[in-house]
Each structure stands twice: as structure tokens, then as C-alpha cells.
Design goal:
Blueprint: E1 13-18, E2 22-27, H1 30-43, E3 48-52, E4 55-61, E5 66-72, E6 75-76, H2 82-109
Antiparallel strand pairs: 1-5, 2-4, 3-4, 5-6
Amino acid sequence: TEAFFSLAALSGTVWLRYEPFILHVRCRDLKSASQLLQEAQKMYKRSALIASSQKFILEVRGSDFLEMPFYQDGKLLFSGDMLWLQEWINSKLQQNWERIDRFEKEIKKK
């Protein structure tokens, strides 16, 4: 992270972006896709079922998201506390991994 927060020599816009967990699962039939969707939505509200012909794809999607311009032509645009930002992003990543672990454990119970 130290290297990311010191990008003053770059030109153009550097974006800081954090995306949530996204998982695509191809299910054997509509019934199994619906069951998995029901479980996924308990933890991942934005999950959805995508059907095409006889293919049933479940998209399990988290909702935490951050996107912001960070540098513009070598000038830092973020004016807040850099340590706070770093800790906040790391906490979001940690929460993401913990949710993935919980989801995996719930699915294995079934």
C-alpha cells in the first residue's frame, strides 16, 4: 500500500477502487439454482439468477463498493487522513473474506 499512496510522478487520473465479492455458479437445474439463491440472499442481498436456454447461472454479489479519483496529474486529490483510508479499505477487505468464509460454511452444511 505504501507504493500506491505515493504515485505523484504519474500523469492522468489514478482511481482508487474497491469491489465486492462476486461469484458465478452454473447450476444443474432451476431447482438447485433457486435453493442456492435463497441461501446466498441471506448474506448477499444483491445476488440474482441468470437463465439462458437451459443454463442457470447464479451470481452471488456483495454490496460494498468504493470508487474515487485519487491522483490527477501527480496531485493527490484525497484530503483526508491517509492512515484512516488505508485502515478502512483493509477492514472492508477483511470483512469481505470473513463473509466469504461464512457463506462457504453455510453452503457446506446443506
